[in-house]
C-alpha cells in the first residue's frame, strides 16, 4: 500500500516547528494566566458592586419608610392647623357678634337711660 505523502518511517519533526509550537503554548498559557487574573479581579469588583447596590437598596427602603412617616406626620399637623384655624375663625365671629350685640345693647340701654332720666 502506498500512503499519501512521504512514506519514510520514523520521521522526526523539524526543530523549528517544535520550537514554534512550544512558543505558541507558552504565549497561550501566558494569555490564559492574564485573562484568568483579570477575570478574578472583575468578579471581585462585581461582588463589591453587588454589595453596594444591596446596601443602597436597603438604605433607600429605610429612607422611603422615614419619608412616608414624615408625610403622615405632616398631614396630621396640617389637619390640626386646619382645625385650629376653623376654631379661631369661629371664635372671631362669635367675638364680633358679641361685640356688636354689646354695642347695640349698650346703645339701647343708653337710650333707655336717657329716656327715663
From TrEMBL:
Keywords: Coiled coil, Membrane, Signal-anchor, Transmembrane, Transmembrane helix. GO terms for cellular component: Golgi apparatus; membrane. The chain crosses the membrane at residues 16-35. InterPro entries: GOLM1/CASC4. Its main location: membrane. The keyword Zinc-finger does not apply. It is a single-pass type II membrane protein. The keyword Transmembrane helix applies. It is found in: Membrane. Belongs to the GOLM family. This is Golgi membrane protein 1. It comes from Sphenodon punctatus (Tuatara).
